[in-house]
Specification:
- The protein is α+β, with helices and mostly antiparallel strands.
- It has 11 helices and 12 strands.
- Helices cover 45% and strands 17% of the residues.
- The strands form 3 sheets. The protein has a 4-stranded mixed beta sheet with strand order 1-4-6-5.
- The longest helix has 23 residues.
Length: 334
């Protein structure tokens, strides 16, 4: 029997990047792109390399194209990391695993290194497959922690819980990462947003702006750790913005949501260096009346638009600047 599992990109609606700094965020996953894992029983344990893991090339052009597509590391380290973390979790919790091996393959069409949580989607799909294969249930909050631990503890990548929580729950989630809650529970307080009426969202991205999340977070974390006043104030405001957005969402106050999304980005721009290409995407979106902020660490933006007339204007202006625009298919699994 072949086990096939899926996970999806994450869109940070509001509050990021405060998720790694005891803040609050709202995020959802969307099915326009997908990471897929296949796992089946075999005599030996094998992880099959994919395009991102190539080591042989026809020429220099192909090598450089592959690096631009997937970065320097590929996905093998992710799969190895999550298998190790799963095994150690089961061992710590006295969960006896059946004595059997597997072969695992993965692929993903999620645009990489654009702040869409493509790496954690691969990890999430893989952990789902392992749980099904060995018949182990892991509650979503712990599941998200395990996925994060691969990146932070095993691979040394600075990251927060937001992506992994949205991918573990596969529902829109309001997340409170208050320090006291985190220290007591080991994870945040997560509220699934049932029956919410989101405004019209778009997501836009330019693949040549890709950069790893660690590029942004490493410097920010250092500033947070030394308690730089400007950083602490920003984190506090992002948490407030998230609360205000949630209230506006419940009231269906689209104008307020529009304003808060813009404030979220403007606060970030005043705190962290933002490349001109990323600024251009935001300004192009705002020029037609849409709101705009990063979906994650940069390279992609999310915002709201009023109607189809505005969306068509947005699509045209972005297309003229070689920027892709989509309407996210928001997942809300029961």
């Amino acid at each position: 029997m072949i086990i096939e599992t899926y996970s999806y990109p994450r869109a940070a609606v509001i509050g990021n990047p405060s998720d790694g700094y005891f803040g609050k965020t709202i995020a959802f996953v969307f099915s326009n792109f997908v990471a897929k894992v296949q796992l089946y029983q075999t005599p030996q344990l094998e992880i099959k390399p994919q395009r991102a893991d190539k080591t042989t090339y026809n020429n220099l052009d192909e090598l450089v194209d592959n690096i631009n597509f997937a970065g320097y590391y590929g996905g093998m380290r992710l799969i190895k990391g999550i298998v190790k973390v799963f095994y150690e979790y089961c061992k710590r919790n006295n969960i006896k695993l059946a004595s059997k091996n597997f072969t695992i393959t993965y692929n993903s069409n999620i645009p990489l290194r654009l702040g869409l949580a493509g790496s954690s989607a691969i990890l999430t799909a893989c952990l789902k497959a392992l749980c099904l294969f060995y018949e182990v249930y892991i509650e979503p909050a712990i599941f998200a922690n395990l996925v994060l631990s691969v990146e932070t503890n095993e691979l040394g990548i600075s990251a927060g819980l937001q992506d992994r929580v949205a991918q573990a729950y596969e529902k829109p989630v309001f997340m409170n990462f208050d320090k006291k809650i985190m220290e007591k529970e080991g994870y945040g307080k997560y509220e699934v947003l049932h029956n919410v009426h989101f405004p019209n969202f778009y997501i836009a991205f330019r693949k040549n702006l890709s950069e790893g999340t660690e590029t942004v977070h490493n410097n920010l974390k250092a500033r947070f750790d030394i308690k730089e006043a400007k950083v602490l104030q920003a984190m506090k405001r992002w948490a407030q913005i998230t609360e205000e957005f949630k209230a506006a969402l419940e009231k269906r106050d689209k104008q307020k949501m529009h304003e808060l999304i813009n404030e979220n980005f403007d606060l970030r721009r005043n705190l962290i260096p933002v490349s001109q290409g990323n600024i251009e995407m935001v300004e192009l979106a705002r020029s037609v009346g849409a709101s705009a902020k990063f979906t994650g660490s940069g390279g992609a933006i999310i915002g709201t638009y009023a109607d189809e007339i505005m969306y068509n204007k947005l699509h045209d202006i972005m297309n003229n600047n070689e920027i892709e625009v989509i309407k996210p298919n928001i997942i809300n699994n029961n």
